[in-house]
Amino acid sequence: MDLKEWAQRKGYRIAWGPVSLLDEIRNELVNRHEAGEFEEKFFEKSLSNFGYLKGLSEIRTVGVVAIPRPGHLIRFSNGNRTIDAVAPPTYLDYDKTAQDVLAEMNDLVPGEEPHFVSLHAPLKGLAVRTGLAHYGRNNITFVPGMGSYHQLVGFASDLDLGSANLPEAKTPALLPLCESCSACQKACPTGAISKERFLLRGERCLTFLNEYEEAWPDWLPSTTHNCLVGCLLCQKACPQNAGLLRFEKAREEFTSDETAALLGGGSEGNERLWRAITEKLTRIGLDGYEPVLGRNLKVLLAAQTPNKV
Ligand code: B12
What we know:
The chain is α+β, with helices and mostly antiparallel strands and 309 residues long.
């Protein structure tokens, strides 16, 4: 089994390291939390549920695979108009992408027992410490040839992947080009990427705001939303991502009736349509976002931004 050769053949990148890296990552998160660096509500919702190695035994190695991902255009008919709303890279088929990669890795090992299982931990921290990626100023990771348009899939394994292959733990570092560039910070309309500190102000990130059902804060102009869910502004502005963003058409599109049901909000009286919507969302791996899609789509329609990608 040659994991590096497999990853190269597939167009992925893989790196791994000792389990002790997780302690380092967890401690850093705990220390930043104790130092009050996170807004409490944001921390509670987004950063308090990492399982790390809970429920796993005899783990010898932890690692990450970076998979290049395209963005998607999802077509919504709306009367005599159609809207191609943008889902940034990683949104569609998020779980399936991770499951498929782990299954492929397990297929490389003889026998029925799985030796690679999903790792639920802060993956950027692991990716930079294993040498797989670097942080960009926008607080996400960059991988050569993929830019930031990749999905990180974390794994834990009971296999000793060869101590000779364990990359030396690296200190998290900013990409050299980011030192003199502030394109992402200027492009971020909410101040989530700030001059004052590197750590993202997650509670201000458009992605955090539009992924959840809660009412948007008064200070947020709804016209800043640019995607069906998530945001692409800091990634699109990045010179290191130039030429790397690809779009694919989503496998499903939504009829005028389905769009109207989404825009109308609740499923009451529309059960059949909502079932069809949920089935379509499940087939493209965007299920779970039903409660926010109508609200988000409404502002895209109002601003007529979806085709300006
Ligand atoms: C919670 C979360 C969010 C939250 C918070 C994001 C955040 N930055 O923490 C919200 C909802 C806002 C979010 C948004 C997005 N997310 Co998100 N998210 C996650 C999740 C689940 C955990 C992230 C995490 O660990 N945060 C904790 C913080 C503390 O860790 P950190 O960001 O690494 O911060 C470290 C550095 O700041 C470092 N540090 C501090 N100071 C300094 C100074 C210097 C110089 C350096 C070098 C480092 C440094 O210390 C911190 C650790 O203590 C991961 C999946 C996972 N399991 O990891 C996906 C993940 C990070 N998200 C991902 C994506 C794609 C996005 C979006 C691009 C989605 C979109 N809109 O399209 C945006 C990007 C927003 C942004 N610019 O950061 C991808 C990122 C892939 C990549 N290229 O890096 C991930 C890895 C999912 C995946 N499996 O691929 N996300």
